[in-house]
Design brief:
The protein is of the alpha/beta class. The chain contains twelve helices and eleven strands. Helix 4 links the parallel strand 5 and strand 6. The radius of gyration is 18 Å and the shape is globular. The model has no long low-confidence stretch (mean pLDDT about 95).
């Protein structure tokens, strides 16, 4: 298997996607975020496992120089979901992994926790377009627990939750009774499971292992209140962004980056600052759960 794992011994690892760094922020803001993530993981006694495709190998864990180079290359890296992995590896292109590809790599490296911003999901009008993120498929078949601020607000959250339920994916609200909507801490959609401490989340993951269940788990962690954007404001911005995307005939995998860039402009940068804040909060939570999980495995 073309996978190279380079992680320190003795520290629980937290998987991290590289699309967030390469396509989410420009240089040097992406590298500054990567360093902040590393600092938080070190504070919590965990190690970063950034996943990327480099020189024909799936890399799990990068050196300092490799991480810096990846951030410098930024959007030049190919955005890689699971379906794209074989092609990018065979052609030896630089690949930035999305949630689905990162989950696959984490599972094959024996990593149980993965921190990201927000997962993909069922797009609005998805019942007609059939635009459903590969993230949901991977969650149904890969035993990795994903800590995120729910799903991106631009998606159809109700149908996203219905899809996850149908595919047998547990969705756990961390200190919340409703599904977070990325920039917005709460939504109208109630969750079946709420847990208020990291030890119990780790116990739930461990129990899932013992049962031999094949799916992953989504741990929904609301954005910190001081960075949250009001739901009404967010929905107004999203509706405007969707209308612009339709007018510009944007479709397929170009939709999400288009909408996020539009929201960045219309919010005067507030959405980007919110994104960074929720990522760092998810990383800290994932690290704490990873430590508790490691102690249970021992």
């Amino acid at each position: 298997m073309n996978i190279k794992i380079d992680l320190p011994i003795g520290f629980p690892a937290v998987a991290l996607e590289s699309t967030l760094l390469c396509h989410g922020l420009p240089w040097p803001a992406n590298y500054e975020l990567a360093l902040k993530i590393n600092t938080i993981l070190a504070e919590e006694g965990a190690s970063p496992a950034v996943v990327a495709l480099i020189d024909g190998l799936v890399r799990v864990g990068l050196s300092d120089s490799e991480l810096e180079n990846l951030c410098r290359e930024g959007s030049k890296a190919v955005k890689v979901a699971t379906r794209d992995m074989a092609y990018v590896l065979a052609t030896k292109q630089l690949g930035a992994t999305t949630v689905s590809a990162t989950m696959w790599a984490a599972a094959n490296a024996g990593i149980r926790l993965f921190a990201t911003g927000g997962i993909g999901g069922v797009h609005r009008d998805g019942e007609n377009s059939m635009d459903i993120s590969a993230d949901l498929v991977e969650l149904s078949r890969t035993p990795v627990a994903v800590v995120s601020a729910g799903a991106k607000s631009i998606l159809d959250l109700g149908r996203t939750l219905e899809y996850l339920e149908t595919m047998g994916v547990p969705v756990v609200g961390f200190r919340t009774d409703t599904f977070p909507a990325f920039y917005v801490p709460h939504s109208p959609y109630a969750l079946p499971c709420r847990i208020d401490d990291e030890k119990l989340v780790a116990a739930l993951i461990h129990q899932q292992d013992d049962l031999g269940l094949p799916s992953g788990m989504l741990i929904a962690n609301p954005i910190p209140a001081e960075y949250a954007i009001p739901a009404i404001t967010m929905e107004t911005w999203i509706e405007e962004a969707l209308e612009a995307a339709e007018a510009d005939r944007i479709s397929g995998k170009a939709v999400t980056p288009y909408l996020l860039a539009y929201l960045h402009r219309i919010s005067q940068g507030k959405t980007v600052e919110a994104n960074k804040a929720l990522v760092l909060d998810n990383v800290r939570l994932a690290a704490r759960i990873a430590k508790e999980y490691a102690s249970l495995r021992e």
